[in-house]
Amino acid sequence: MRKEKNISPRTDLAIEAREIVQEQDEKESSLDGIEVTEDQGAEYKLTRVHITTKKGSHTMGKPVGTYVTIEAQKLKENDVECHERLIGVLAKELAELANLKRHDTVLVIGLGNWNITPDALGPKVVSKVLVTRHLQEALPDTIMETVRPVAAISPGVMGITGMETGEIVKGIVDRLRPKLLIAIDALAARKTSRINATIQLSDTGLAPGAGVGNQRKMLNKETLGIPVIAIGVPTVVDAATLVNDTMDCMLREMKVQAEKNSPFYEMLRAMEHEEKYGLITELLHPYMENMFVTPKEVDAVVDRLAGIIANAVNIAMHPGISMADINRYQS
Amino acid sequence: MRKEKNISPRTDLAIEAREIVQEQDEKESSLDGIEVTEDQGAEYKLTRVHITTKKGSHTMGKPVGTYVTIEAQKLKENDVECHERLIGVLAKELAELANLKRHDTVLVIGLGNWNITPDALGPKVVSKVLVTRHLQEALPDTIMETVRPVAAISPGVMGITGMETGEIVKGIVDRLRPKLLIAIDALAARKTSRINATIQLSDTGLAPGAGVGNQRKMLNKETLGIPVIAIGVPTVVDAATLVNDTMDCMLREMKVQAEKNSPFYEMLRAMEHEEKYGLITELLHPYMENMFVTPKEVDAVVDRLAGIIANAVNIAMHPGISMADINRYQS
Amino acid sequence: MRKEKNISPRTDLAIEAREIVQEQDEKESSLDGIEVTEDQGAEYKLTRVHITTKKGSHTMGKPVGTYVTIEAQKLKENDVECHERLIGVLAKELAELANLKRHDTVLVIGLGNWNITPDALGPKVVSKVLVTRHLQEALPDTIMETVRPVAAISPGVMGITGMETGEIVKGIVDRLRPKLLIAIDALAARKTSRINATIQLSDTGLAPGAGVGNQRKMLNKETLGIPVIAIGVPTVVDAATLVNDTMDCMLREMKVQAEKNSPFYEMLRAMEHEEKYGLITELLHPYMENMFVTPKEVDAVVDRLAGIIANAVNIAMHPGISMADINRYQS
Amino acid sequence: MRKEKNISPRTDLAIEAREIVQEQDEKESSLDGIEVTEDQGAEYKLTRVHITTKKGSHTMGKPVGTYVTIEAQKLKENDVECHERLIGVLAKELAELANLKRHDTVLVIGLGNWNITPDALGPKVVSKVLVTRHLQEALPDTIMETVRPVAAISPGVMGITGMETGEIVKGIVDRLRPKLLIAIDALAARKTSRINATIQLSDTGLAPGAGVGNQRKMLNKETLGIPVIAIGVPTVVDAATLVNDTMDCMLREMKVQAEKNSPFYEMLRAMEHEEKYGLITELLHPYMENMFVTPKEVDAVVDRLAGIIANAVNIAMHPGISMADINRYQS
Fold first, then answer.
1. Beta strands C45-51; C34-40: pairing state
2. Over residues A217-226, mean pLDDT
3. How far apart are the C-alpha atoms of A179 and A176, rounded to whole Å?
4. What whole-number distance in Å separates Cα of residue B156 and Cα of residue B311?
5. CB under 8 Å, gap of 24 or more: what pairs does C94-98 form?
6. Residues of B with CB under 8 A from a CB of C
7. CA angle (A293 as vertex; A290, A294 as ends), nearest 5
8. pTM here?
9. Residue in A117, A249, A284 nearest the CB of B246
10. What distance in Å separates the CA atoms of residue C11 and residue C14, rounded to the nearest whole number?
11. What is the mean pLDDT of chain B?
12. Listed residue (A207, A221, A157, A223) closest to D175, CA to CA
């Protein structure tokens, strides 16, 4: 879970960044360098956002590359059969993005703090991934043909280790020399409704502080020398986002009822364009700075999400593991 | 954590119930049957609310009896020395309310769901209370003189057991026949600033659904046949309370800036008297119904609060345990 | 996990009690009142011991009734498919022993200490049992037709609660009035090879201290007024049993090599009949009194065993749950 | 917890290695290159073993260097006051071995598997160590003067990560460039009585497979380029060690009673010199290969040991932390 001091509602989701761009500027040219395709299924919506140019990257505040999002309210629920189908979708997208050769070694990194439930997604996935790299010499070739060499670690957060996470990962990557890094993390979103209902895959690495001057070491091809796929789920929103969302609803409601062109309507309209989110943040500060909003059953939901992602990673990585093996290789 | 479908911000705290009464009705007679004394220390504020008559009970929506509240922002922080002083204050208040004879047996009940961090306060306290009732025959008299017979259990919540908690407690009380029940629970508050910063003791039992027709079995002298002391801490607020608190701040801010007697000021004033909380709740429903607001470090804070309460219970109950033994009898 | 001060290796397993009887006395009449049928499958061995008379009960040191044992070394391993077949076998035996009417309420009790991994079997099963009793009024009849009213609780051990477990259970049973109690517990065995490889079902209740004067309250039809089915797995052996088992192996080895009728052979033979186990226990005392022997991966094994038993309970109890639903109703 | 396939009882403790040397060879010259000083206090025994030459290293099967052992049966018990005194002793020895300059950075590594209680000592210590390295820029100089830059991580075991632990540590050390590595690990001992009652400090690094051809990467000055202090506690013995210990007791007992010069006595004597341990291991194999012996309350004991070591590390490392701060900086 990466946080920043920023007065606009921060989002790690490319689909939300695009919504913000569209809200702020209705000209078509504003989306130059950004290609979007959507695929609305019965159970989920799959969106592919391709940022193709520097201009697009600047507009979106995100690096050039591909962002695939799976949205499904059922991700929050305990619907075993739907989750199995989503595992299949996710595994397919991941295998495509990864584009690995048969014997390439992969390192899976679980980011986040295992002591804080909504930030524990990454470490939980890592604990469920089938790790095989150390077995290469011990197992017979016929078995090893069915698995790819996979290593995995959850390095912890800086407050726990005293070290920048990027430094730890860089140190390990330099010794292990894998062909691909897969990093799993909880994300920030700006819509309460997306909590635990969205999975984003991207091939651009993790850019925790892009655009806001955060000094944290990025995990991407430039810094690590290997491709990085990030898999993330927004698991909380901060208190200000919740208030903001609610006030938006209220204003919409009031606008409907207020007469157009009345001074009150004007005020409300004006207010939307002012830094409403900034005002809220300021008011919530200081005593609510550390508050976050999360569903009551967050422990169970994060556990299930971790299972979905880990199953997808196992299927996408190991040639011998298929949909029939779901949950079989999880401890 | 007891919840209800109610459109006014629900509170388990007598001090908040009184604030609401005062806000709604400024006549002095409105507080008939309610006596309040306050004691403002450097580190904490101690408030005693005595509801002395049926009228007072009806006004407050709480049973006749005594409610002692300790408020201290430091309860949230990791301030070992301040917490030791608060343990002393709490132990003294508890011993007074309990008013036990030397060899009276006490049963401590930890209410709430141990799988949901902010609801796990009661079970955590129970795990730290020094349990001695089963040692009565094994230990020599000289040692037994230093301890009171104390039993303790966390029965779980109805969603876990399939049984009304009150039924389980009643069954155990009927067989064990203790002289006092001490019940520990997480509470609902209506001010975000009170989360994890307030401990309430009361001698009126627990009345989960008082006034809103909730059918849950009460734990009090009428239902159990023995006195019941409730110890509680508000550990979360619901999302609607957070939004409400924030909007109150915003309105206050805007009122300061708006010209008095302008139509806008009037609208804001009017809005305060409308069912703002109800409107918010309606808007948040359905997708935020299960959202709650909690501090990031809730696990650590609830652990520390459980330690404070358990130490106070141990000192108040056992003649041989004093302030010098803090943390010594916790596993 | 029930323990006793006893110099002969203590067993909760009827199949082991019978082995001891056979070892000590080779006359056929010694097994009067004890009927045994065995069913050796490819993956497991199913043994039914019926103690039919008082004489049989006295010989075996166990109450009159039925004891069904499933033995399978694969219970220790992570063999998902074999475990699914064993769930089916267990569910069938349990349904038969339970012999319930369609709407009878069942209470499931998880005995043992959740803080000690090998003693946590009962509480772990309870956390995975589908609890439905509290839904009777909330759910539509068509759904309720598919489930039986089931309640469940793990009362904890006396060292944690200060109360005799039997007292707590009696208190709850008296208020809830279920038609059947199912109690799950870790057992003591006298063969190291049976650890985590044996499940015993019995309809005789739990008789923790039968025959050794232990005063603990029994959980059976006499004390509770309802039938009691016990489900148990031996999860540890004490250190003395391990030493004893090993020395038996050594003696057998040495006997093979020693000439018959030599004084040495005689000594070894004699030694077997002496109180070897008692001697070992004495030697191990005091510094090894609290030592127990357990497999390295005990956490994972107990988790899987709990899953097997909980699935079997769910299938045996709820008409609408079948083998196709394995793991689906576990949190 | 490092294990090996070896038929002689394996020990990580220098004091046990010396006992073995003394048992096997009573000549004085056998201890050439090994200096031992002992300090018997009322509550604990402090032994310093210095291996000063290659010959001594070969005799002991351990690298040249210093091994400090604190033995105290009270380490197993819940004796807060004694533990505080032992923290003081341990902190003093650690500070001396570490011999750091004022601002040297230290990396603390918790070895072992957090999923297996007796192997979780290292990770538990790490979770209680005060980590400060990341605060160097954020905090004012006056506060930073009271703390040393300390980082800490628990990398997990190879079965979990797929990577050699030494590789991970090497990668991190190469990037972080600390001046000292402190590695905490559970150890193997060959006497059941030493379980959880002994803490060993050494400045020789960790040599998991010394002498038995184990290929695991060592953590020492040669491999990492910085000094390594290892802190360890034996938390389990394997089943064979338990049986061996018990049989030694039995033989001693029987020798006392047997007439000297009888053939039986001769046999017992002979047996001692045979590969008794090897025989036991063989007999226990295969079904007990993975069994280990541990005290019932192992969770609580390992927690307390971790607290003792973490407090000692905090006091030895940070100039501003003293005995008055025990437990204050642990989460």
1. antiparallel
2. 92
3. 9
4. 22
5. C94/C182, C94/C201, C94/C229, C94/C231, C94/C312, C94/C313, C94/C316, C95/C316, C97/C66, C97/C68, C97/C201, C97/C203, C97/C229, C98/C180, C98/C182, C98/C229, C98/C316, C98/C317
6. 127, 131-135, 149-156, 158-164, 167-168, 170-176
7. 125
8. 0.84
9. A284
10. 8
11. 83
12. A223
Q: How far is residue D98 from each of residues B187, B321, D199, D226, measured CA to CA in Å?
A: 49, 40, 16, 11
ipTM computed for the complex: 0.86
Pairing of strands C150-153, C106-110: parallel
CA distance A223 to chain D (A): 14
Decide: C35 and C52 in contact? Cβ < 8 Å. Answer: yes
Find which of C77, C79, C80 to mutate to test the A interface (most A CBs within 10 Å of its CB). C80
CA B34 – CA B67 distance, rounded (Å): 11
Structure tokens at C45: 């061995």
What are B208's two structure tokens?
Answer: 């989960």
Q: How far is the C-alpha of A172 from the C-alpha of D173, rounded, in Å?
A: 10
Contact predicate C125/C309, CB 8 Å: yes
Q: Which residues of chain D are within 8 Å of residue B80 when distances are taken between CB atoms? A: 327-328
The nearest CA of chain D is from the CA of B115 a distance in Å of 19
At D260, phi and psi to the nearest 5? -60, 150
Within 8 A by CB and 6+ apart from D298, the residues are D117, D118, D196, D235
CB contact under 8 A, A328 and C300: no
Distance of CA C69 to the CA centre of its chain: 9
Nearest to C162 among B132, B156, B175 (CB): B132
Query: Considering just the CA atoms, what is the radius of gyration of chain A in Å?
Result: 21
Size of interface B-D (CB pairs under 8 A): 7
Q: Which of B242, B247, B250 shows the shortest C-beta gap to A239?
A: B242
| Cross-chain Cβ contact D171/A175 below 8 Å | yes
pLDDT grade, residue A95 (50/70/90)?
very high
CB D195, CB D235: distance < 8 Å:
yes
Give me the residues paired with residue A112 across strands. Answer: none
Question: Range with the lowest mean pLDDT among A69-83, A132-146, B120-134?
Answer: A132-146
Rounded distance, CA B103 to CA B145, Å? 9
Find the closest chain B residue to C134 by CA distance.
B162
β-strand pairing of B228-238 with B291-295: antiparallel
Q: Do C153 and B149 touch (CB under 8 A)?
A: no
Question: Residue D7 — very low, low, confident or very high, per pLDDT cuts 50/70/90?
Answer: very low
Chain B contact residues (CB < 8 Å to A): 115-117, 192-193, 239, 242-243, 246-247, 249-250, 253, 263-264, 267, 279-280, 283-284, 287-288, 290-297, 299-300
Contact at CB, B246 and A249, closer than 8 angstroms: no
Q: Does residue C309 have a pLDDT over 80? A: yes
| Chain C contact residues (CB < 8 Å to B) | 127, 131-135, 149-153, 155-156, 158-164, 167-168, 170-176
Tokens describing residue B247: 């909007």
Q: How far is D325 from chain B (nearest CA, A)?
A: 10
Residue D143: pLDDT band by 50, 70, 90 thresholds? confident
